[in-house]
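ESCALATION

Customer reports they have been waiting on this structure for their group meeting. Please prioritize. Original submission:
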Amino acid sequence: MLSDDELLRFSRQILMPRFDIAGQEALLSARVLVIGAGGLGCPVALYLGAAGVGHLTLVDDDVIELANLQRQIAFETSQIGEPKAEVLAARVRSINPAASINVVNRRLAPDDFAHEVAEATLVLDCSDNFSTRFALNRACVAAGVPLISGAAIRGEGQLSVYDSRLPESPCYHCLYPEQGNEDLTCSEAGVIAPLVGMIGSAQAMEAIKVISGVGRPLVGRLLILDAWEMQWREMKLLKDPDCPVCGSK
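Update from on-call: job pushed to the front of the queue and completed.
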């Protein structure tokens, strides 16, 4: 049962007939794991916390640097040197004090991924390296927990949802082979500031859709954004029957 404060706070969402109180209650009972508190993780955490997700776990082992402030919108100049996940959690709490937020200020080992994912309703990959993405994908497939993956670099972004609960859903490994991929980071290639906000906001929207059961999530579809041309392209993704991660599922 929603409290009077919750009915008022989330009234603009509850007003929507498809979403209604049932959708809001689903958000409030969800446990969402966010890996990365940078350019993607900031809008993801802020929007999901503001929208009423009941429990967030924010994972990031990094501290705020001056070069982050161009795009990581939850942070301020006065917070340089402070842990990203701690500062982001405090910012979410300032918007929605009722949100329960757990902070992990370290890089997760493979066993840690399995534990954290098993506790989650949904996982959002807001990281910036392939090793984390592959480890997180394996943990999500093993636990049967949906994974929303976003990426942004230069002026290009992409987004998809991998839901191993659905037999037809591919996993991240179906799209990218683990061998031969080299990390290309924003510090090496650059990134335009609003792009990470666009992709992160889209990840948050996909999370709300998966949790509430309203709408059609991006399962089996990859959205690719060229921000300079403002063009979205959609590619269909098929499950690889020989995938070493999800092929036998």
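Sent to customer with the following note: The two ends are 37 Å apart (CA to CA).
Escalation resolved.
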